[in-house]
């Protein structure tokens, strides 16, 4: 386990702030986003004000406002950088 100065609450707030900014940048009301994402407007409001939301609903909002592949990439181990030309040639 790696130590971090970030708490889960810090990350929740950052994610909710980012999604709210994306919604506003697209000039979408909460209701319009609700219709596009199938997440109720009341849930969107709660998420934007408290950071609380289910993972499924978060993903529905994310895929409406951004590429879901970006979230998926968090689960993929990055490939290591080759340390030598020999490693490059072997791959």
Comma- or semicolon-separated keywords:
single chain, 0% strand, mainly alpha, 91 residues, 6 helices
Write up what this structure looks like.
- The chain has 91 residues and is mostly helical.
- Helices cover 64% and strands 0% of the residues.
- The chain is built from 6 helices and no strands.
- It has helices at residues 8-25, 30-37, 41-50, 55-65, 68-72, 85-90.
- Helix 1 packs across helix 3 (41-50), helix 2 packs across helix 3 (41-50) and helix 2 (30-37) packs across helix 4 (55-65).
- The longest helix has 18 residues, at 8-25.
- The two termini are 31 Å apart.
Spell out the blueprint of helices and strands:
Blueprint: H1 8-25, H2 30-37, H3 41-50, H4 55-65, H5 68-72, H6 85-90
Helix pairs in contact: 1-3, 2-3, 2-4
Uncertain ranges = none
* Mean pLDDT across residues: 93
Number of strands: 0
Distance between the termini: 31 Å
Structural class: mainly alpha
Determine Rg (CA atoms, Å): 18 Å
Amount of helix: 55-70%
- Count up the helices: 6
Overall spatial form: elongated
Strand content: under 5%
Element order: H for helix, E for strand: HHHHHH
The biggest beta sheet, please?
none
């Amino acid at each position: 386990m790696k130590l971090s100065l970030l708490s889960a609450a810090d990350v929740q707030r950052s994610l909710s702030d980012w999604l709210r900014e994306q919604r506003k940048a697209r000039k979408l009301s909460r209701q319009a986003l609700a219709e596009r994402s199938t997440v109720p407007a009341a849930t969107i409001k709660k998420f934007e004000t408290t950071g609380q939301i289910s993972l499924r609903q978060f993903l529905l909002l994310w895929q409406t406002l951004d590429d879901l592949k970006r979230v998926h990439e968090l689960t993929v181990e990055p490939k290591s950088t080759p340390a030598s030309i020999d490693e490059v040639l072997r791959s």
